[in-house]
Amino acid sequence: MEFFFDYGSPFSYLADTQLAEIAKRTGAALVHRPMLLGAVLKAAGNTSPMAVAAKGAYMALELERWAKRYGVPFEPNPFAFRANTLRLMRGAVASQRIGVFDAYHGAVFRAVWGAPLDLGDEATFRDLMRRAAIDADELIEAIGEQETKDRLRRNTDEAVERGVFGAPAFFVGDEMFWGNDRLGWVEEALHRAAGR
Fold it and tell me: Which of 17, 56, 121, 169 could form a disulfide with 50 if both were Cys (CB 3.0 to 4.6 A apart)?
């Protein structure tokens, strides 16, 4: 089960809270694929739901409904950094490269949508890494490396090539599913792939 996501996507956060259990129930391997949602939207000719006032208002309601259904904390993030998640997404790739992805991923998603922090503030970001037992200096160095930048670009390009137009997006083999509300179908596809 490949999971294409961006930390700026609240529905990616909500879906993420369910994926470990889906993987456990189906025996599937979960592969996290960080991508740049803004670049995907642009390449697909798509826009954020927030660009349409009525859709944005409805989306806010849907986010509350899904958080309640899943029993997870959710709070809109008031900090402007959400307009550009490039550093956070490079951080996801960097954390994969240096072997601290699980700690980074959980901490960042919670800090963006569960208990919002201003991760655009350097001291706040470093403190979050410290609390997640991640060496912030090592991570920040890896974020700046060309291999990190190139891998994130490749992930994003691959997402576009495979037909992704928003987040979250999931692949079971070559079959794509888009949206938090498609997780039931993702699970069914995983059972089929396992011959169940």
Answer: 56
Q: Which of 9, 12, 48, 95 is catalytic?
A: 9
Query: Can you name the residues that pair with 170 across neighbouring β-strands?
Result: 3, 177
Pairwise CA distance, residues 17 & 20, whole Å? 7
Q: How far apart are CA 125 and CA 174, in angstroms?
A: 36
Locate the domains of the chain by residue range.
2-193
Q: What is the pTM of this model?
A: 0.94
**Model confidence band, residue 153 (pLDDT cutoffs 50, 70, 90):** very high
Sorting pLDDT into bands at 50, 70 and 90, what band is 17?
A: very high
95 is catalytic: no
How far is the C-alpha of 36 from the C-alpha of 42, rounded, in Å?
A: 10
Closest CA to 76 of 61, 92, 88, 55: 61
Beta strands across the sheet bearing 175-178: 31-34, 2-5, 169-172, 175-178
Length of the chain: 196
User: What pLDDT is stored for residue 83 in this prediction?
Assistant: 55
Predicted local confidence at residue 166, as pLDDT? 96
